[in-house]
């Protein structure tokens, strides 16, 4: 979420390749195919990078959690 309390406008990133850094030094690289108002993401042609290890994933859904 942005500081204004509104989710960021991700429309300009649709169908573009993104790098998303997650917890535990996990990096996900793929094409943004969809999102919702809660900032859950659908990433296509995904590569998961954890250190030197790479795993190809066809499609991933990344859920935004607030802790």
TrEMBL record:
Function per UniProt: Probable common Sm protein, is found in U1 and U2 snRNPs and may be part of the spliceosome.
Gene Ontology process terms (BP): mRNA splicing, via spliceosome
Keyword Nucleus recorded: yes
Superkingdom field: Eukaryota
Name listed for the protein in its UniProt record: Probable small nuclear ribonucleoprotein G
A GO cellular component entry from the record: U4 snRNP
Sm domain location: 5-67
GO molecular function terms attached to this record: RNA binding
SMART domains reported in the protein's UniProt record: Sm (SM00651)
Nucleus listed as a keyword: yes
Record key words, sorted: mRNA processing, mRNA splicing, Nucleus, Ribonucleoprotein, RNA-binding, Spliceosome
Signal sequence region: none
Localization per record: Nucleus
Organism the protein comes from: Capsicum annuum (Capsicum pepper)
Entry-linked Gene3D superfamilies: 2.30.30.100
Pfam families hit by this protein: LSM
InterPro entries the UniProt entry points to: Lsm7/SmG-like (IPR044641), LSM_dom_sf (IPR010920), Sm (IPR047575), Sm_dom_euk/arc (IPR001163)
Family to which this protein belongs: Belongs to the snRNP Sm proteins family.
